[in-house]
Amino acid sequence: MNWDQALRILQPSRTGSPASDSVSRGFPALHRSHAPSLCVASGKGGTGKSVVSAAFAALWSETGRTLLVDADLGVGNAHLMQSVQPTRTLVDVVRGRASAAEAVTPCASRLDLLAGGSGVSQMASLTPGELRLIAEAVEALDSRYDMLVVDSAAGISEQTIAFASASDLVVIVTTSDPTAMTDAYAFLKVLFARRRDAHVDLIVNRALEEEEGQRTASRIETVCQRFLGRGVRFIGSVPDDRSVLRAVAQRRCVITTEPESPAAAALRSLQRSVAEELVQIAHLGLGRTLGASCGTVLPR
Questions:
Q1: 149 forms bridges with which residues in the sheet?
Q2: Distance between CA atoms of 219 and 199, rounded to whole angstroms?
Q3: Predicted confidence (pLDDT) per residue in 230-275, tens digit
Q4: CA-CA distance, 290 to 134, in Å (whole number)?
Q5: CATH architecture type of domain 34-71+146-293
C-alpha cells in the first residue's frame, strides 16, 4: 500500500471555495440469541464520536432496553454526556471489586451505562486476561438488553480494534479535517486487517453543508477501494450545529436537550439507517466475540 498516494487523495483540493476545503428504530426479532451491537469509533479524538454514541443510545432506548458501553477504558467520559457519576466502573470489574451487574449505572428510562475508567492509566493497556474479564462482564449483561452501543476509544490501539471487530456493526465518525480523514482511513486499514468482513458505516460530523459531507466520504471511499480493496457505506452527515455545544455544556445529549435542532434531526435519520442495517446482520454476541479474540470462547 502506498501511504503517500493515499494521503494525497485524502487531502482537500487547493482550488474552490473555503467551504469546499473544509426501520424504523425497531429491534430484531425477540427470539434472537444475542443483543445486536454497534461500535461508534473514530481514528482520532475530537470528531464528535461520543456525541453520536450518546445520541444513538438515547434513540434506541426509546423503544427498548439499551446499554451504553464506554470502551475508552483509561479515560472514559461517556458518563459526562449522561450527567451521571458512576460509583462502580469496569475498573472495579477487572480488579474483582464488582460484578457486571453492580457496575451498571442507570441513566434514563431503559438506558444504562457500563462506564470505563477515568484517569486510570493501567486500563489503557489491559492484558488478554483482563480484557477477557470485560468480555465476560458484557456477556453476562447481554440477555438483559435489546441493544448494545459501544462508545469506543479514539485511535487504533489493540483494545479499540478488539471492541470494533467484535461488534456486529461499526460506525466511523470523521470530519472534513484532513487529519481526521487520514486517521479514519488508518482505523479502517487496521480493522479490515483484523476482520475483513466487518460491516462498516461512515458518518461525517460537523459538515458545513451536505456537499462537504459527500466530498469527504468520497475521498475516504476512493482511498479504501484503491488500497484496501473494499469500501465503506456512507450513511450521511451531521451539520455543524451549536445546539450540540449547548447540550455538551449541560452534560446532556442533543436528542433530549434540543430534539428539533438540525443536528438532532440528522442523528435520528442516521440512527434509522443503522437500525435498518442491523436487522439484516447476524448478531454474534459482543461479549462472546470479544472473549474469543482474547483466546477463550465464552460458554453458551
A1: 38, 68
A2: 19
A3: 999 999 999 999 999 999 999 999 999 999 999 999 999 999 999 9
A4: 9
A5: 3-Layer(aba) Sandwich (3.40)
Measure the CA–CA gap between 203 and 110, rounded to whole angstroms: 26
- The torsion defined by the Cα of 49, 274, 282 and 36, in degrees rounded to 10, comes to 60
Question: Which residue, 74, 44, 275, is CA-closest to 172?
Answer: 44
DSSP letter (8 states) at residue 270: H
CB 91 within 8 Å of CB 76: no
The answer, as to whether pTM is greater than 0.85, is yes
How many alpha carbons lie under 13 Å from residue 139 in its C-beta half-sphere?
19
How crowded is residue 285: how many other Cβ atoms within 10 Å of its Cβ? 25
Could you tell me which residues are beta bridge partners of residue 233?
A: 201
* φ, ψ at 258 (rounded to 5°): -140, 70
Per-domain residue ranges of the chain: 34-71+146-293
Q: Are 118 and 76 in contact (CB under 8 A)?
A: yes
Give the count of alpha carbons within 13 A of 25, CB side only: 19
Contact present, 217 and 234 (Cβ < 8 Å): yes
Output phi, psi for 30, to 5 deg: -70, -10
Which residues lie across from 39 on neighbouring strands? Answer: 150, 170
8 Å CB contact between 235 and 266: no
